[in-house]
User: What shape does this take?
Amino acid sequence: MTTILDKILLEKKKQIEIMLENDVPLQEHKITRPSLFDQLYGTEHLQIISEIKRASPSKGLIAAGVNPVVLANAYYEAGAVCISVLTDTPFFQGSFQDLAVVSDTVPIALLCKDFILHKVQIDQAINAGASVILLIVAALSEKELQNLYEYATSEGLEVLVEIHDSIELETALKMGAKLIGVNNRDLRSFEVDLSRTTEIASIFPFHEKRVLISESGIRNVEDAAQVARYGASAVLVGESLMKIGDVRATINDLKVKRGVITP
Ligand SMILES: O=C(O)c1ccccc1NCC(=O)[C@H](O)[C@H](O)COP(=O)(O)O
Assistant: This one.
Protein backbone atom coordinates (compact mmCIF):
# COMPACT_ATOMS: atom_id res chain seq x y z
CA MET A 1 0.00 0.00 0.00
CA THR A 2 1.27 3.46 -0.87
CA THR A 3 1.52 5.59 2.27
CA ILE A 4 1.53 9.37 2.62
CA LEU A 5 5.25 9.23 3.38
CA ASP A 6 5.82 7.38 0.07
CA LYS A 7 3.82 10.07 -1.75
CA ILE A 8 5.72 12.92 -0.08
CA LEU A 9 9.09 11.32 -0.89
CA LEU A 10 8.11 10.70 -4.52
CA GLU A 11 7.10 14.33 -4.93
CA LYS A 12 10.28 15.45 -3.15
CA LYS A 13 12.43 13.56 -5.66
CA LYS A 14 10.75 15.50 -8.50
CA GLN A 15 11.44 18.79 -6.71
CA ILE A 16 15.08 17.80 -6.23
CA GLU A 17 15.41 17.23 -10.01
CA ILE A 18 14.16 20.77 -10.58
CA MET A 19 16.50 22.19 -7.92
CA LEU A 20 19.44 20.45 -9.58
CA GLU A 21 18.46 21.80 -13.01
CA ASN A 22 18.25 25.33 -11.58
CA ASP A 23 21.63 24.89 -9.89
CA VAL A 24 21.33 27.39 -7.02
CA PRO A 25 24.84 27.53 -5.51
CA LEU A 26 25.57 27.38 -1.78
CA GLN A 27 26.24 30.90 -0.51
CA GLU A 28 29.14 31.91 1.72
CA HIS A 29 27.84 31.51 5.25
CA LYS A 30 28.70 31.49 8.92
CA ILE A 31 26.04 30.19 11.27
CA THR A 32 25.80 32.54 14.25
CA ARG A 33 22.56 31.40 15.84
CA PRO A 34 22.76 29.80 19.31
CA SER A 35 23.33 26.05 19.34
CA LEU A 36 20.11 24.12 19.89
CA PHE A 37 22.01 21.28 21.53
CA ASP A 38 23.75 23.61 24.00
CA GLN A 39 20.44 25.13 25.02
CA LEU A 40 18.69 21.81 25.44
CA TYR A 41 21.34 19.68 27.07
CA GLY A 42 20.70 19.56 30.82
CA THR A 43 17.86 22.08 30.68
CA GLU A 44 15.84 22.17 33.90
CA HIS A 45 12.62 23.00 32.10
CA LEU A 46 11.10 21.62 28.95
CA GLN A 47 11.91 23.91 26.01
CA ILE A 48 9.61 24.66 23.10
CA ILE A 49 10.39 24.36 19.41
CA SER A 50 7.51 26.27 17.85
CA GLU A 51 6.47 25.41 14.33
CA ILE A 52 5.07 27.49 11.50
CA LYS A 53 2.59 25.08 9.92
CA ARG A 54 0.01 26.28 7.41
CA ALA A 55 -1.37 22.86 6.49
CA SER A 56 -0.63 19.18 6.84
CA PRO A 57 -1.53 15.89 5.20
CA SER A 58 -3.33 14.72 8.36
CA LYS A 59 -5.28 17.90 9.12
CA GLY A 60 -5.56 19.71 5.77
CA LEU A 61 -5.62 23.49 6.11
CA ILE A 62 -4.57 24.71 9.56
CA ALA A 63 -3.73 28.39 9.06
CA ALA A 64 -3.20 29.09 5.37
CA GLY A 65 -3.05 32.88 5.64
CA VAL A 66 -0.58 33.07 8.51
CA ASN A 67 2.07 35.81 8.37
CA PRO A 68 5.35 34.05 9.20
CA VAL A 69 7.04 37.28 10.34
CA VAL A 70 4.30 38.10 12.84
CA LEU A 71 4.16 34.52 14.11
CA ALA A 72 7.95 34.17 14.35
CA ASN A 73 8.12 37.36 16.41
CA ALA A 74 5.37 36.08 18.70
CA TYR A 75 7.20 32.76 19.17
CA TYR A 76 10.50 34.51 19.83
CA GLU A 77 9.04 36.97 22.33
CA ALA A 78 7.20 34.11 24.05
CA GLY A 79 10.53 32.36 24.72
CA ALA A 80 10.63 29.56 22.12
CA VAL A 81 14.10 28.01 21.99
CA CYS A 82 13.87 27.40 18.24
CA ILE A 83 11.46 28.01 15.38
CA SER A 84 10.66 25.17 13.00
CA VAL A 85 9.60 26.24 9.52
CA LEU A 86 7.98 23.69 7.23
CA THR A 87 9.42 24.38 3.79
CA ASP A 88 7.50 21.76 1.81
CA THR A 89 4.89 23.34 -0.47
CA PRO A 90 2.66 20.59 -1.93
CA PHE A 91 1.74 18.95 1.37
CA PHE A 92 2.32 21.69 3.99
CA GLN A 93 2.01 24.96 2.02
CA GLY A 94 5.35 26.12 3.40
CA SER A 95 8.35 27.44 1.45
CA PHE A 96 12.01 28.38 1.64
CA GLN A 97 10.74 31.95 1.33
CA ASP A 98 8.97 31.47 4.70
CA LEU A 99 12.25 30.22 6.17
CA ALA A 100 14.17 33.20 4.76
CA VAL A 101 11.77 35.80 6.16
CA VAL A 102 11.76 34.11 9.56
CA SER A 103 15.56 34.05 9.45
CA ASP A 104 15.57 37.82 8.88
CA THR A 105 13.17 38.29 11.81
CA VAL A 106 14.54 36.31 14.77
CA PRO A 107 18.04 35.48 16.09
CA ILE A 108 17.22 32.10 17.70
CA ALA A 109 17.92 28.59 16.38
CA LEU A 110 16.01 27.91 13.17
CA LEU A 111 14.97 24.46 11.97
CA CYS A 112 14.33 23.73 8.30
CA LYS A 113 11.56 21.12 8.58
CA ASP A 114 11.47 19.22 5.33
CA PHE A 115 11.97 15.78 3.87
CA ILE A 116 15.65 16.01 3.03
CA LEU A 117 16.95 13.42 0.59
CA HIS A 118 19.73 15.31 -1.21
CA LYS A 119 22.47 17.79 -0.30
CA VAL A 120 21.02 20.39 -2.66
CA GLN A 121 18.16 20.78 -0.14
CA ILE A 122 20.70 21.34 2.63
CA ASP A 123 22.29 24.09 0.52
CA GLN A 124 18.87 25.72 0.11
CA ALA A 125 18.23 25.47 3.86
CA ILE A 126 21.55 27.20 4.56
CA ASN A 127 20.90 29.86 1.91
CA ALA A 128 17.55 30.58 3.58
CA GLY A 129 19.17 30.97 7.02
CA ALA A 130 18.57 27.65 8.82
CA SER A 131 20.88 26.57 11.63
CA VAL A 132 19.31 23.12 12.09
CA ILE A 133 17.98 20.59 9.57
CA LEU A 134 15.84 17.52 10.03
CA LEU A 135 16.86 14.10 8.76
CA ILE A 136 14.19 11.40 8.99
CA VAL A 137 15.55 7.89 9.51
CA ALA A 138 12.46 6.32 7.86
CA ALA A 139 13.10 8.30 4.67
CA LEU A 140 16.75 7.39 4.12
CA SER A 141 19.11 4.45 3.88
CA GLU A 142 21.81 4.33 6.56
CA LYS A 143 24.40 5.39 4.00
CA GLU A 144 22.31 8.35 2.79
CA LEU A 145 21.64 9.36 6.37
CA GLN A 146 25.32 9.27 7.26
CA ASN A 147 26.37 11.20 4.12
CA LEU A 148 23.77 13.92 4.60
CA TYR A 149 24.55 14.16 8.32
CA GLU A 150 28.25 14.58 7.63
CA TYR A 151 27.65 17.13 4.88
CA ALA A 152 25.29 19.22 7.05
CA THR A 153 27.58 19.24 10.08
CA SER A 154 30.62 20.03 7.91
CA GLU A 155 28.73 23.16 6.81
CA GLY A 156 28.13 24.17 10.44
CA LEU A 157 24.53 23.00 10.78
CA GLU A 158 23.08 21.01 13.64
CA VAL A 159 21.00 17.98 12.70
CA LEU A 160 17.84 16.78 14.37
CA VAL A 161 17.55 13.07 13.57
CA GLU A 162 13.95 11.92 13.63
CA ILE A 163 13.00 8.41 14.72
CA HIS A 164 9.80 6.54 15.48
CA ASP A 165 10.88 3.28 17.13
CA SER A 166 13.73 1.50 18.89
CA ILE A 167 15.27 0.17 15.67
CA GLU A 168 15.48 3.68 14.24
CA LEU A 169 16.93 4.84 17.57
CA GLU A 170 19.74 2.30 17.11
CA THR A 171 20.46 3.75 13.66
CA ALA A 172 20.50 7.31 14.99
CA LEU A 173 22.81 6.38 17.86
CA LYS A 174 25.15 4.43 15.61
CA MET A 175 25.66 7.43 13.35
CA GLY A 176 26.46 9.67 16.31
CA ALA A 177 23.30 11.80 16.41
CA LYS A 178 23.20 14.14 19.40
CA LEU A 179 19.77 15.70 18.83
CA ILE A 180 17.22 12.93 18.49
CA GLY A 181 13.52 13.57 17.94
CA VAL A 182 10.84 10.94 18.47
CA ASN A 183 7.92 11.64 16.20
CA ASN A 184 4.79 10.64 18.09
CA ARG A 185 2.96 10.68 14.75
CA ASP A 186 3.30 7.62 12.57
CA LEU A 187 4.08 9.22 9.20
CA ARG A 188 2.46 6.30 7.43
CA SER A 189 -0.85 5.98 9.31
CA PHE A 190 -1.08 9.47 10.98
CA GLU A 191 -1.72 7.80 14.33
CA VAL A 192 -0.44 9.97 17.20
CA ASP A 193 0.66 8.32 20.43
CA LEU A 194 2.76 10.04 23.10
CA SER A 195 3.82 6.68 24.48
CA ARG A 196 6.22 6.62 21.51
CA THR A 197 8.26 9.15 23.47
CA THR A 198 7.96 7.40 26.82
CA GLU A 199 8.94 4.05 25.27
CA ILE A 200 12.00 5.51 23.56
CA ALA A 201 12.87 7.45 26.73
CA SER A 202 13.04 4.19 28.67
CA ILE A 203 15.96 3.01 26.49
CA PHE A 204 17.48 6.39 25.62
CA PRO A 205 21.16 6.80 26.61
CA PHE A 206 20.77 10.15 28.42
CA HIS A 207 24.19 9.57 30.06
CA GLU A 208 25.87 9.76 26.64
CA LYS A 209 25.32 13.52 26.27
CA ARG A 210 22.43 13.24 23.87
CA VAL A 211 19.19 15.16 23.81
CA LEU A 212 15.70 13.73 23.39
CA ILE A 213 12.98 15.81 21.74
CA SER A 214 9.31 14.84 21.57
CA GLU A 215 7.66 15.80 18.28
CA SER A 216 3.98 16.05 17.33
CA GLY A 217 0.67 15.73 19.13
CA ILE A 218 1.46 18.00 22.09
CA ARG A 219 -1.87 19.69 22.80
CA ASN A 220 -1.61 20.93 26.37
CA VAL A 221 0.38 21.14 29.58
CA GLU A 222 -0.52 17.56 30.56
CA ASP A 223 1.01 16.23 27.34
CA ALA A 224 4.10 18.37 27.92
CA ALA A 225 4.38 17.14 31.51
CA GLN A 226 4.11 13.51 30.39
CA VAL A 227 7.09 13.69 28.02
CA ALA A 228 9.10 16.00 30.29
CA ARG A 229 8.73 13.54 33.17
CA TYR A 230 10.46 10.91 31.06
CA GLY A 231 13.37 13.18 30.19
CA ALA A 232 12.48 14.97 26.95
CA SER A 233 14.36 18.27 26.78
CA ALA A 234 12.02 19.88 24.28
CA VAL A 235 8.74 19.45 22.45
CA LEU A 236 8.18 20.35 18.83
CA VAL A 237 4.72 21.87 18.59
CA GLY A 238 2.88 22.84 15.42
CA GLU A 239 -0.87 22.60 15.14
CA SER A 240 -1.80 23.54 18.73
CA LEU A 241 0.26 26.73 18.60
CA MET A 242 -1.13 27.65 15.19
CA LYS A 243 -4.65 27.46 16.57
CA ILE A 244 -4.14 29.08 19.95
CA GLY A 245 -4.89 32.77 20.61
CA ASP A 246 -2.30 33.48 23.30
CA VAL A 247 1.02 32.08 22.12
CA ARG A 248 2.97 33.66 24.97
CA ALA A 249 0.85 32.11 27.74
CA THR A 250 0.78 28.73 26.03
CA ILE A 251 4.53 28.52 25.51
CA ASN A 252 5.08 29.62 29.07
CA ASP A 253 2.69 26.95 30.39
CA LEU A 254 4.37 24.20 28.37
CA LYS A 255 7.77 24.91 29.95
CA VAL A 256 7.22 22.42 32.73
CA LYS A 257 9.96 20.98 34.94
CA ARG A 258 11.85 18.01 33.53
CA GLY A 259 12.89 14.80 35.20
CA VAL A 260 14.25 11.48 34.08
CA ILE A 261 12.18 8.56 35.39
CA THR A 262 12.32 4.91 34.50
CA PRO A 263 8.90 3.64 33.45
O1 LIG B 1 1.55 16.70 10.40
C1 LIG B 1 1.31 15.82 9.56
O2 LIG B 1 0.16 15.52 9.18
C2 LIG B 1 2.42 15.06 8.90
C3 LIG B 1 2.13 14.05 8.01
C4 LIG B 1 3.13 13.35 7.37
C5 LIG B 1 4.45 13.65 7.60
C6 LIG B 1 4.77 14.67 8.51
C7 LIG B 1 3.78 15.36 9.15
N1 LIG B 1 4.06 16.39 10.02
C8 LIG B 1 5.37 16.89 10.26
C9 LIG B 1 5.67 17.00 11.69
O3 LIG B 1 6.52 16.29 12.14
C10 LIG B 1 4.87 17.95 12.54
O4 LIG B 1 4.55 19.08 11.79
C11 LIG B 1 5.51 18.44 13.82
O5 LIG B 1 6.09 17.43 14.57
C12 LIG B 1 4.44 19.16 14.67
O6 LIG B 1 3.34 18.31 14.92
P1 LIG B 1 1.97 18.85 15.54
O7 LIG B 1 2.30 19.59 16.80
O8 LIG B 1 1.16 17.63 15.81
O9 LIG B 1 1.35 19.74 14.55
Q: What stands out?
A: The mean pLDDT is 96. Residues 4, 51, 53, 56-59, 183, 185, 187, 215-218, 236-240 surround LARABZUK (CB under 6 Å).
